[in-house]
Amino acid sequence: MNNFLIEHYSLITHFVEILAAVTGLLLFNKYKGSSTKYFIYFLVFITLSELVSRYTYLVKEGGLLSFLDGTVFQRNYWWGTLFWSLGSVMFYSFFFLKIIKTKRFRVILNVSRYSFLVFFFLYIIINWGDYFIRPFPVISILGAIIIFMCSIFYFLEILESNTILSFYKSINFYIAATIFIWWLIITPIVFFHIYYRNIDWNFIHLKWMIFLVANIFMYLTFTFALIWCKPQND
Predict the structure, then answer these.
(1) What pTM, to 2 d.p., does this model score?
(2) 230 — phi, psi (to 5°)?
(3) Helix, strand, coil: what percent of the chain each, to 5?
(4) SS3 73
(5) What whole-number distance in Å separates Cα of residue 44 and Cα of residue 21?
(6) Rounded Cα–Cα distance for residues 131 and 78 (Å)
(7) How far apart (Å, rounded) are the C-alpha atoms in residues 69 and 117?
């Protein structure tokens, strides 16, 4: 079973990503009057970005993009850092700013997201050479902190309101809970990237399994929430 999952890691991951994005597009009219429409846009963005990240397969063995072989673009670390480490954090902070109403929470999130944005580009400029060959743990950790803040602020807000009585019907709750759990599982892995670079296949297979299970959980939860929940007006 493990061998099957590892061999079909990319296929399964893309399937659940596309499933969530297509479900969102099919139900777009249901959510077009709420902030959830931005979340649907983001699911489509993730799907397209993940497909773009597979360009490395066209670089190998005389592929269509073989002219990139030997250049800094032969690996896709730069793309993953840009679209996920930065893009996902900026999106989720934007999304929760749309649904969080408490002024002090909004101020903290705004300051945090723009501070993260400035830090991201300064850190990339300082470490420009490494940008193309490895992920940056410090960026992943700071991004995770902002994601945790988004989720926790949302949870605190619903605890102080009548929304707590029907939280299980709120798509915002499922989004907050899911990304909190996903980042909690994935973030520690960045500390062990040295084993990936040293081609430790035991670690690589373990990493793939953790990411696969986490991704299946995340995107299937998003799919379920889009179908089950009712739109919430802002």
Answers:
(1) 0.91
(2) -100, 150
(3) 85, 0, 15
(4) helix
(5) 5
(6) 6
(7) 31
- Residue carrying the six token digits 């605190």: 156
Residues 55-75, buried b or exposed e (16+ Cβ, 10 A)? bbeebeeeeeeeebeeeebbe
What stretches of 83-102 show up as alpha helix (H) in DSSP? 87-99
Q: What is the pLDDT along the chain (234 residues), one digit of tens a residue?
A: 666 666 777 889 999 999 999 999 999 999 998 999 999 999 999 999 999 988 888 887 777 877 888 788 888 889 999 999 999 999 999 999 999 999 999 999 999 999 999 999 999 999 998 999 888 999 999 999 999 999 999 999 998 877 766 777 889 999 999 999 999 999 888 777 655 555 667 777 778 889 999 999 999 999 999 999 877 655
CA distances from 189 to 28, 79, 151, 211 (A): 34, 19, 21, 10
Encoded tokens for 142? 């700071």
Q: Are 113 and 96 in contact (CB under 8 A)?
A: no
